Amino acid sequence: MNEAYKIALKQNQYPTYILSDREAGSRLEVVPERGGIITGWRVQGQDILYLDAERFANPELSIRGGIPILFPICGNMPENLYVHQGQSYKLKQHGFARDMPWEFRESSVDELASITLVLNSDENTLKVYPFDFELRFTYQIQGHRLLLKQHYSNKSSEIMPFATGFHPYFQILEQNKSQLEFEIPAKRSQDQNTKETQPFKNRFDFDRDEIDVALFPLKRNSASMTNPVQKFKITLTYTDIFTTLVFWTVKDKNYCCLEPWSSPRNALNSKENLVYLEPGESCEATVELSVSY
């Protein structure tokens, strides 16, 4: 056991695992019961993530903050409906994984601080997504890096299509948004509301009440957002399963979201960039977040 790393369990409103790298001044909070979510990540005493504590405390509301998990869809679908083998199913925005209790499986403090959570299909998921699955996610912190390692398994007797992603809320003060600098390797942006597509020039109009754009195709596996006022840079690195980045923010809110998605909105209907797993097959993916000063 490396004494630089520590994991503690606190009984807040929900059992909360606290992972820490004391030498790097890094601290991660994970709440399995509330959608397997990362609720906080602090580096050198600075909160990297935003969290709306009131929404988090209300289990009837979706969480705004932390790093929600998106599965088996990203975004929404017209009337929340999709068709599989001639039958209609209803899935709400971003799917169900972010609303379900995940199971704590194991933790480690050997070479880094690590925790593994598991989510399995059940009778409720089968009503809206007719596939047996197992998701196994491992969160790791080391230094100023946070790794989100994912393992997706199809336990069905038929091919399983899905989309997956993350929705990190980075804490950016509203008055600093216009100063942000971006390096996002996308050729085009599409407004999620108007569906208007245009060339992407690595900037956003922060005078708008809301920015919600999909960015694609991606020319490389990393993107970054630099905050020159607060003097830090966040770099997002992702494996090839992630084909789209989504940028979302709302005026007068202290967050900006830069989200890796495997597939665009409505992919269960359009089939665009869906992931397909054969019966008994598994696949892996990784997203890494790093902070530099």
Question: Considering DSSP H and I runs of 4 or more, what fraction of the residues is helical?
Answer: under 10%
Can you list the strand order of the major beta sheet?
Answer: 9-10-11-12-25-21-20-16
Order of helices and strands: EEEEEHEEEEEHEEEEEEEEEEEEEHEE
Distance between the termini: 29 Å
In terms of per-residue confidence, which ranges show pLDDT below 50 for 5 or more consecutive residues? none
Structural class call reads mainly beta
Percentage of residues in strands = over 45%
- The whole-number mean of residue pLDDT values reads 96
Shape: globular
State the total count of DSSP E strands: 25
Please summarize the sheet with the most strands: 8 strands, antiparallel
Write the layout of secondary structure elements.
Layout: E1 5-11, E2 15-21, E3 26-31, E4 37-43, E5 46-47, H1 53-57, E6 69-70, E7 81-84, E8 87-90, E9 103-108, E10 113-120, H2 123-128, E11 133-142, E12 145-154, E13 160-162, E14 165-166, E15 169-171, E16 181-183, E17 186-191, E18 197-199, E19 210-218, E20 222-227, E21 232-238, E22 244-250, E23 255-261, H3 267-270, E24 275-277, E25 282-292
Antiparallel strand pairs: 1-2, 2-3, 3-4, 4-5, 6-14, 7-8, 9-10, 10-11, 11-12, 12-25, 13-24, 15-23, 16-20, 17-18, 17-19, 19-22, 20-21, 21-25, 22-23
